[in-house]
Write a structure and sequence with these properties.
Blueprint lengths: L1 E2 L10 E3 L5 E3 L7 E7 L4 H16 L5 E8 L3 H8 L6 E4 L3 H5 L7 E5 L5 E6 L7 H14 L2
Parallel strand pairs: 4-5, 5-6
Antiparallel strand pairs: 1-8, 2-3, 4-7, 7-8
């Protein structure tokens, strides 16, 4: 993942989850949050999706969260792919949330630091539990400790 050159505040993100409950990025302030924009029709998205759950398990819930933002699909389609998930899967049915974020294509992943700023970005598929990415995330966690 590459560093975002100028740390800027993450755009707002408040979307419904599979149960229709609104999940708001602002409620995760103080944690590192990996925000992944994806769709089931996207082969690299499907390939990287299991690694989101694996990286989520490496870190403690009090420090790190994954938000998987599905773009343009209905809950039934997404649930048939994901089943139950260890992290929130959110629905951006009209791609309005994605339009506010620096997303050029799917998958795009951004990491929001503990202060709510965009810190890392990856365009294209990744294995998020890769040691190099885990090291980057650990470094960001260390920077944000008070």
């Amino acid at each position: 993942m590459s560093a975002v050159t100028a740390l800027s505040p993450a755009p707002s993100l408040a979307l419904p989850d599979i149960d229709g409950k609104t999940v708001d990025l602002a409620s995760y302030r103080g944690k590192l949050v990996l925000v992944n924009f994806w769709a089931t029709w996207c082969p690299p998205c499907r390939k990287e999706f299991p690694s989101l759950g694996r990286v989520r398990k490496i870190f403690t819930p009090s420090e790190f969260e994954v938000l998987a933002v599905n773009v343009g699909e209905d809950p039934e389609t997404v649930f048939s792919f994901t089943g139950t998930s260890d992290f929130p899967v959110l629905f951006d049915r009209d791609a309005q949330a994605m339009a506010r974020w620096p997303v050029k294509g799917l998958p795009t992943t951004l990491v929001v630091d503990r202060q709510g700023r965009l810190a890392l970005r990856a365009v294209g598929g990744r294995e998020f539990d890769d040691p190099a990415i885990v090291t980057q995330l650990m470094e960001l966690l260390k920077q944000g400790r008070t």
